[in-house]
Amino acid sequence: DAGVIQSPRHEVTEMGQEVTLRCKPISGHNSLFWYRQTMMRGLELLIYFNNNVPIDDSGMPEDRFSAKMPNASFSTLKIQPSEPRDSAVYFCASRSGTSGSGQFFGPGTRLTVL
Amino acid sequence: QQQVKQSPQSLIVQKGGISIINCAYENTAFDYFPWYQQFPGKGPALLIAIRPDVSEKKEGRFTISFNKSAKQFSLHIMDSQPGDSATYFCAASKVQGAQKLVFGQGTRLTINP
Fold first, then answer.
1. Checking CA distances to B45, which of A11, B64, B108, B109 falls within 20 to 30 Å?
2. How do residues A12-57 score in pLDDT, each as one tens digit?
3. What is the DSSP string of A26-58?
């Protein structure tokens, strides 16, 4: 099992540019989560999907952030336009539907907005 | 009511010693309490988890102690090794549903050889 795959691993962009982060969950997992990690705020849940449907996006900081999951094997997190305060490590995680099973995190995308 | 408070922020332990990290939660509806381990440049990895129907769970050198009445739980690492040096996060959620985890702020653990 390849685990959760994220791309790119590092992204450097300029303020105002559009940024798209990508995630491939573990095959067979039906829940997918997007997190943001910063020194100041720690790990924050941005949005999660269940069976490709967005369930709770209350953690999305602003309308500049959007996420999609067009199928069970792919999800994107888009920031448009990006701002320096969006600089963080963004993680994708997935879990199976089995009660009590844990979330498995990807390696993260380190985003730097100049 | 959604907060999970973790302490200490950082911890230094000698090799072979016991590392103890504590967490407290507020929401009594939480019934799933995992611990995650994160190495620099990596994503958090699930280490061990506990449900409130037991007061302790042990997996190898890692033990979770759970106190339901105090709404507290802790991670104990026995015979701590330099390879255990990492950041540890506690979390809490309801076990039913999609598992919306609330994370503690993390503890940076350093094991001195």
1. A11
2. 999 999 999 999 999 999 999 999 999 888 999 999 999 999 999 9
3. PTT--EEEEEEEETTTEEEEEEEEETTEEEE-T
